[in-house]
Amino acid sequence: MRGRAGWFFTAPAAALFAVFFGYPLVASLVQSFQTDSDGETVWAGLDNYTRLFEDPLVGRSLVNIALILTVQVPLMLVIALGLAQVLNLSWLRFRSGYRVAYFLPAVTTLVAYAVVFRVLLNTDPGLLNQLLGTHIDWLNDPTMARVALIGSITWRWSGYNMVILLAGLQAIPKEQYEAAAIDGAGSLRTYLSVIVPQLRPVLLFCLITSTIGTLQLFDESFVLTSGGPDNATLTPVLYLYENGFQQLDFGYAAAIAWLVVALTGLLSLVQFRALRTKS
Amino acid sequence: MKRLAHLPLAAGAVVSLFPFYWMIVAATHRTRDLLHSPPPFLPGDQLWENLRRLEDTVGFTRVTVNTVGLTVVYTALSSLISAMCGYGLAKFRFRGRGMLLAVLLATMMIPFQVLLVPLFQMMANVGWIDTYQAVLLPFLANSFGIFLMRQAFLEFPDELIEAGRLDGCSEARIFYRIVLPAARPQLAAVVIFTFISQWSAFIWPLLMLNSEEKYTIPVALSRMIGQSHVDYSGLMLGAFIATLPIMAVFLAFQKQFVSGLLGGSVKG
């Protein structure tokens, strides 16, 4: 009786997952071992996967992602943590106003965001260039396109992480600050021995979700630069999309997808292990 | 000293908000005035003119009605499915429960773009390309919403459910009359998130919808970008209209928004 009721409540979601998640997932795995030969789908063995290693564009997209992982993610998390700390100060006025201001970019519609940034970053005359008094070719110069991409992701997601870290900070009981003060701990000491250890699970959450988000990065490079110039902002998922929907090379697109899945699992595991053993 | 802290904070807030402000400025000027040097920094008087052009070129009213309709249907169905599934997972033991939980985790780890090609072929096979059901169905079951509702229902006391059963209530009635009202804040968070995700949905509707009269706002805007002569002020006005409801929902429901964002993540 109770078991049947459990099925009654979960059946709609389970059926939808089976049809629109389970089936396509298996289909994409099968596709990754197939290729198209004269309009016919044939078995290709590991060909699609070995091709990944020889494809310079796959390497290029991985380098781009690695760059964002090592530059943008730490930069964003430092900004988010700093903002969260400051906006947690009880004596600061307009705190909620600042929170809204910093969080708002995270709720922007992808297309609206893209449109605005394309107009702002236009070369000639380009509002940002006018403000800075420069003539930087933001979207057509490989280095600058990366700077623009990193800047826009940071603009969009710092406030989001700030809100999560702020909630983490507020979950730390006030008594612990007082206890630290009574024990004669200075503010740096309190910070390192009280706040940081307690905040670790929340930081880990931010780090892992940002890493997953970066590995799956698509929106920003799709709409801002279409992966260009000279593939400087090409991401694996964007390359997957190009292979699947422009070249109609479904097998290869599927292999790229599974490469991303493997990387996501691996990196999440590493971060999880590294940060958990310390605590 | 304390006042000084506002300097960097306010500067950051300006950077954060400026693109929104400039969206309004650009939406109220002519495109050619935007490309002038120096560009305008205050709102202009071309709002109605731009709106009329947007209506003439992409049928913006129609496009907006489509987006509202799709978003409302999606939000209602998806939130209901999330609440039901979350309740089932939180309060019942049944075969397949562990597997369903594993699927939920997997949907978060796997990039949804993996599914795009097979989903596209599926819709093509059943002849659903360019239909609204093809836009809505694949993402109706939303693992984030289910997780959040499950977290909410885990804390609901079993005794109250038992009491309902003793009173002879059906399981569906217990859910609808007793359990669901208690989870109203979390349900609100799920409703807000599903609303925003469907309102902004881009790639999938772009792949599914071919006829202009079926476009949603994001799809219509992206088609405008692709044109040879880009109508920047029209685009910015469209982007502004696309952003407005999301901003309004966010500002009105900040609290639910943040609780939705956290999804039980901070407790651990």
Automatic annotation (TrEMBL), chain A:
TM segment ranges: 7-26, 62-88, 100-121, 147-169, 199-218, 250-270
One of the GO BP terms on file: transmembrane transport
Keyword list, A-Z: Cell membrane, Membrane, Transmembrane, Transmembrane helix, Transport
Main location: membrane
Gene3D superfamilies: MetI-like
Domain spans labelled ABC transmembrane type-1: 62-271
GO cellular component: plasma membrane
Mode of membrane association: Multi-pass membrane protein
Tagged with keyword Transport: yes
UniProt protein name: Lactose/L-arabinose transport system permease protein
Organism: Longispora fulva
TrEMBL record, chain B:
Alphabetical list of Pfam families matching this protein: BPD_transp_1 (PF00528)
Localisation per UniProt entry: Cell membrane
Transmembrane segments: 7-27, 68-87, 99-120, 132-149, 187-207, 232-253
Membrane topology qualifier: Multi-pass membrane protein
UniProt keyword terms in alphabetical order: Cell membrane, Membrane, Transmembrane, Transmembrane helix, Transport
Gene3D superfamilies named in the record: MetI-like
Organism encoding this protein: Longispora fulva
GO terms of biological process kind: transmembrane transport
Major localization listed first in the record, in broad terms: membrane
PANTHER family: ABC TRANSPORTER PERMEASE PROTEIN MG189-RELATED, ABC TRANSPORTER PERMEASE PROTEIN MG189-RELATED-RELATED
4Fe-4S as UniProt keyword: no
Ranges of residues in domain ABC transmembrane type-1: 64-253
Superkingdom classification of source: Bacteria
Name assigned to this protein: Lactose/L-arabinose transport system permease protein
Coiled-coil segments: none
Family assignment from sequence similarity: Belongs to the binding-protein-dependent transport system permease family.
Cellular component GO terms held in the UniProt record: plasma membrane
